Hints:
Elements: E1 2-6, H1 13-24, E2 27-30, H2 31-44, H3 52-61, E3 64-65, E4 72-73, E5 76-77, H4 85-90, H5 92-95, H6 98-112, E6 117-120, H7 124-128, E7 134-137, H8 142-155, H9 170-199
Parallel strand pairs: 1-6, 1-7, 2-6
Antiparallel strand pairs: 3-4, 4-5
Helix pairs in contact: 2-6, 3-6
Amino acid sequence: MIVTIDGPAGAGKSSIARRLAERIGFQFLDTGAMYRAVTLAALRAGLGDCDAPQIAALAETLAIDLAHERTILNGEDVSAAIRTSDVSAAVYLAADNLAVRRRLVKLQRQIAGSRDTVTEGRDQGTVAFPQAECKIFLTASPEERARRRHAELAARGEGIFEVWTDGLGPDEVIDRLEKIVREKMPKVEEQMSNVEGMTNPQ
């Protein structure tokens, strides 16, 4: 049996799909990790926006294994590396590449095989597994999705500031952001100075 879970970013798809799979004894197919793995490989190869054919060709050569809830890329455990902000910001390089999507859909079908599977992500119920016996669309309010995204970044130790822009004009938003940036500038300069002092001892 195949269960697909789709929905907008921040709806909790990955965590819910993983826990559901555990509860009902199905395998969990983390398609997002697959796209992130391709993205990581592309960034490491110095590929970017203008390199869609090269990224597609690279994807064909990659060995991606999702066994035991880890993401293994060409034999390397990249479970942490694929969750960084750099990869998150560039994941469109893989996700928006049709050739990469075709490659990963084939791999997803191979992984699912004849096993009971819970899978989440874009195209899962329409392209990858149109025959899925159970298709779920998971969503949440924009406010809740934003809160979850903020909590996710904070849990990874990535500094992030929450700025509410309700009722503010562009100039007022920029004023608030400028204040935050200027408060951080002395700390960043101090850190850089300390690093230079360590690398260039007198």
